[in-house]
Specification:
The protein has 219 residues and is of the alpha/beta class. 50% of the residues lie in helices and 11% in strands. It starts with a strand and ends in a 13-residue tail after the last helix.
Length: 219
């Protein structure tokens, strides 16, 4: 391993990972970023990296939006999620969004090194208690994902706006559509998710870390 980017908004976490990697991988060149924008700028400027170690919960990100942005712009760069949370649904969705592995911050230093080595060897690293088989998916989460799958692409965009707390008039302006169109989308979303309010919809999709596609004005 020659080049690694550590993207985390906590300096202590970056220092800890830097120490672990420096000791385990001699002469590895390390870079740091405290935001997604800074991380993408470093990748753009410096070129390919062997690994990007990414914290999910950084300022300016929601759910897997940071991971998705890096994967969209730099699809050849392996991104490993390093997170304090390690719920089964979170791990599964990280892998579904293209992560090369999921490393809990609670792991011992030696275990982090072993995880990085397995990822570099081409393996998909997940916590020991994670089972990526279909039987491991909680039935409620599977039901929510199935409901989300019934949404059209534009309804997913509108749902993302709702999750972000935007009002109908803000959604209409952002997507360049009429209020009537937005209201129709919202009604359809609530019906397909089988909920009665926007708040219920937000609570439901947050359980599976829903990430909306980027909003584009409707032509």
């Amino acid at each position: 391993m020659e080049r690694v980017l550590i993207a985390d908004d906590h300096p202590l976490v970056r220092d800890g990972l830097r120490t672990v990697i420096s000791v385990a991988f001699d002469q590895c060149e390390l870079f740091e970023a405290s935001s997604i924008e800074e991380a993408m700028g470093v990748i753009e400027r410096e070129g390919d990296f062997d690994l990007v170690l990414l914290d999910l919960n950084m300022p300016g990100t929601m759910g897997f939006s940071g991971l998705q942005a890096i994967r969209d712009h730099f699809p050849s760069v392996p991104v490993v999620i390093v997170s304090a949370a390690q719920e089964r649904g979170l791990v599964r969705n990280a892998l579904a969004h293209g992560a090369a592995g999921f490393i809990p911050k609670s792991l011992k230093r030696s275990a982090i090194v072993d995880a990085l080595k397995s990822i570099l060897a081409g393996e998909l690293y997940t916590p020991d208690d994670f089972d990526e088989g279909e039987e491991s998916i909680d039935a409620a989460e599977a039901d929510i994902l199935q409901r989300i799958d019934t949404l059209t692409p534009q309804q997913r965009v509108v749902l993302g706006c709702i999750v972000s707390g935007k009002l109908n008039k803000q959604i209409a302006y952002e997507l360049d559509v009429s209020m009537t169109t937005v209201k129709a989308h919202v009604s359809a979303i609530l019906a397909k998710l089988n909920v009665f309010s926007r708040t219920q919809a937000v609570i439901m999709v947050n359980k599976v870390n829903f990430v909306a596609p980027p909003a584009r004005p409707h032509n």
